[in-house]
Amino acid sequence: MVSMVFYFGVLGLYIILGIIINFSFENKAARLFQSLSMIVILGGLSAARAVSVGADTQLYNNLYSWDFEAGNWQNILSSKYPLYSLYTYCLHFISSNPQIIIVMNSLIIVTSVAITIYSYSENVFLSNILYVTLYFFFNSMNISRQFLAIGILLVATVYLNKNKIWLFWILYIGACLVHSTALVGIVFFVIHVIHWNKTRFILSGALGIALLIFYKRILNLFIVLFPAYSMYSIGTSDTNVETLSSQSNGGTLLVTIFYLLFICIATLCKVRFQDENREKRFAFLTVVMIIAVMFGIVFYKNILMTRVISYLSIFSIVYIPEVIDLFILNIDTTSVNRWYIRFLVVCGVIAITCVPLYVQLNKNLSDVIPYVSFVAR
Fold this sequence. Notes:
Structural class: mainly alpha
Order of helices and strands: HHHHHHHHHHHHHHHHHH
Low-confidence stretches: 234-248
InterPro entries: EpsG-like
Number of domains: 1
Keywords: Membrane, Transmembrane, Transmembrane helix
Strand content: under 5%
Protein name: EpsG family protein
Largest sheet: none
Transmembrane segments: 6-25, 32-51, 100-120, 132-160, 166-194, 201-229, 249-269, 281-303, 309-328, 340-359
Mean pLDDT: 85
Helix content: over 70%
Radius of gyration: 20 Å
Distance between the termini: 20 Å
Oligomer: single chain
């Protein structure tokens, strides 16, 4: 209970700091300082955690020691995650203390998320808060290797939307060499190259239905190719601790329906963004979230699919603020004040998302309670 109060206390102070930044600086500078505050506060909080915080943190510490002891090019290249093995091996030349893998993973993950938020979202403040309240931050303290891959793919999509295709492919391959579930990132490239219209939306919907029908065969094929992930069919992690990534609960479905609400709002809005690049990014985000919601509703009880869907659903932290901005644009300014409506909506979204945050912390999903810092040990 004390650690839950601690997390909510940090969140409250973070919100206050974000408000102060927004009122103290112009938009561009405020967005930059919001991003820096995220890296310092959330990155620092995650980096300073002890090995007991996060169900799989001890596992990653053990892997860190093992990778160096067995470290040679043959073992690295034959590893199931060669780039991650190379990365951990190189870190040993900085420090042999396993805490360094916690520190570096935390800073890389939070920095990559901050870069993505800064690139996609006009409301960096709200996106940063949603990263915490939608539980992505706490998941990252558990399944760190997958979140490294997620972070790399997030940055890859930033370059993809800038039409720097070769950088996308380099980062995509890198993400796959960190965690094989990152293969799902090919979806981002497909979404990017398609010029979306009503016909193509219908065709993609038909394809989605086909994938839903044959998903068991596809899932079995993936497990045949990557047998290490067969463990998720029984709902435990490598440490035999049930974690959020290996749980199937109604809360996951409710959050997915919450995402669906924003997709519906975006669909009903007639006025669009005047910035062509922003509108293109928004179309990309909408398709990603439609896929995330569609698969999230059907597969909320499937452990492996829940992990795969997280590559898509994490875009909700930038999609929701963009939908709010679009909604505000559709309000008649002659009858109401847009700033006042925006303030109420943002406060409402934060309050609503604090509910699943409380529920998941209360269940201690990802085993992040109690929070202990290695500095205090």
